[in-house]
Amino acid sequence: MKQITQEVNDLISRSMDSHVRIAVTGLSRAGKTAFISSLVNQLLHTSTHDSLPLFAASRDKRLVGAKREPQTNMMVPRFAYDDAMEHVHSTPPKWPEPTRDVSEIRLALKYKPKKKTKKLFGSTSTLHIDIIDYPGEWLLDLPLLDMDFEQWSQSQFDALTGKRRELAQAWLDKLDNLDISQPLNEKAIADVAQSYTEFLYECKREGLHWVQPGRFVLPGELEGAPVLQFFPCRVDDNVKAGKGSNLAMLKARYNEYQQKVVKAFYKHHFSTFDRQIVLVDCLQPLNAGYESFQDMRHALEQIMHSFRYGRSNLLKRLFAPRIDKILFAATKADHVTPEQHPNLVSLLQQMVHPAWQSASYENIEMSCITMASIQATQAGFINKGDQAYPALQGTTVDEQALTVFPGEVPKKLPDQAYWQEQGFEFTAFRPRKASSDEPLPHIRMDKALEFLIGDKLK
Ligand SMILES: Nc1nc2c(ncn2[C@@H]2O[C@H](COP(=O)(O)OP(=O)(O)OP(=O)(O)O)[C@@H](O)[C@H]2O)c(=O)[nH]1
Ligand SMILES: [Mg+2]
């Protein structure tokens, strides 16, 4: 009898298991792979280590343990956790390789519930966590769904100012030599499309992040496919381009891109996310200069449109969105001394809040933090005379031991004078040597976990 009761309880307790899909995004090099690797690593160590004091379930000793599980979505590549760990634990330690596509990993987290209803059915419950990594650049494409080819082309030409204009020259020259009203010449189109794609890559290399279409620079499995071979054109009423022309093909490819690439991503991936973390590397544009900083703000604003379900009905028409919490995190906080962290968070808030407040984000909770997924430096002080100055100590990616004060992070959005007067310079450090049976050193990963899944572990 006792055994039957136990079995029934186990059955009910399994049916009470919960599930959450956490999406991790950010522009390229924002720190997505490092974040997911650290998140998985921290959770796998919860039963043996106390390194997450700001994560209530861990602090209260309610986490029993975590294990990896096979992912349920078999159409998406697995997140390469073991490869990332191999890099971080190699001698000397290295950062994980850049990634180019969507990937996912699944964990089961066993915990002791606090809620009476859950306790009734057994002493532990399980939260299944899917973590999905996808490029933030893909979110830059949402506005394309509201524009036809002519409107999109115009928007791209309007954006050609400053550095962007200079970088576009080679592509513009090629475009001038193409008669779009002529019968289709696939080779000529492919040639101009390649030049346009190179221009977008060049923008990224120069620290400009707002690039459209986002898939052109992060094609994933679509690399080389004709659906990624189009480009903006000067289309006016005088252009007589009928069926079978170059222009007709460019329009067809643009439409295909809207339907099969952009819409498909929102329908098959985005609509399944429950929680979202957007990682932002605020330090890279501080290093790079004013134009790069403004450009990142613009890209971030565009990214935020994807979470705005109220006013724009576009997403509602596509699917019923379900993200109810978004965390914006300024990554790589170990690149600056700890007393600069409040400034870093205030800078991020200034980039995110105005757009947030002016738009309608229905029932979505939002927060901003600073963090380091894998802490590469140690913070301390250097003494000069009787004064102690904050400093960072670490080993650079070229294996040089270094102690530095990288500079002050501006509290407010900086104007052009900031880069003329002081600027900012951070060094890329390699990860610290860490033992594989210890959790990775981090800054505020526990705060991120509390925001993302704390309420699911009650
Ligand atoms: N110091 C420090 N550097 C970090 C941290 N996280 C990421 N980085 C640096 O940022 C680089 C990019 O990190 P990734 O995690 O690969 O970023 P990503 O967003 O996955 O990049 P892509 O896959 O190329 O889009 C790393 O190679 C490190 O140099 C961190 O917590 N601390
Ligand atoms: Mg990556």
* Strand order, largest beta sheet: 2-3-4-1-5-6-7
- Number of helical elements: 16
Which class of secondary structure composition applies to the elements?
alpha/beta
Which percent range describes the beta-strand content? Answer: 15-25%
Number of strands: 10
Which shape, going by the Cα principal axes? globular
**First-to-last CA distance:** 31 Å
Describe this protein's structure.
It is built from 16 helices and 10 strands. It is α/β, with parallel strands linked by helices and 458 residues long. It has a 7-stranded mixed β-sheet, with helices on both faces. Helix 14 links the parallel strand 6 and strand 7. The protein is globular and about 80 Å long. The protein starts with a helix and ends in a 5-residue tail after the last helix. The chain binds guanosine-5'-triphosphate (GTP) and magnesium ion (MG). The site of magnesium ion has 4 residues, from helix 2. It holds the Pfam family DUF463. Keywords: ATP-binding, Nucleotide-binding. This is ATP-binding protein.
Provide keyphrases for this structure:
458 residues, Rossmann fold, 3 domains, seven-stranded mixed sheet, 16% strand, binds guanosine-5'-triphosphate, binds magnesium ion
Task: Give a quick summary of the entry.
The protein is an alpha/beta fold and about 450 residues long. It has helices spanning about 1-15, 30-45, 55-60, 80-90, 115-120, 150-160, 160-165, 170-175, 185-205, 245-270, 285-290, 290-305, 315-320, 340-360, 415-420, 445-455; strands spanning about 20-25, 65-70, 105-110, 125-135, 275-280, 325-330, 365-370, 380-385, 385-395, 400-405. The two termini are about 30 Å apart.
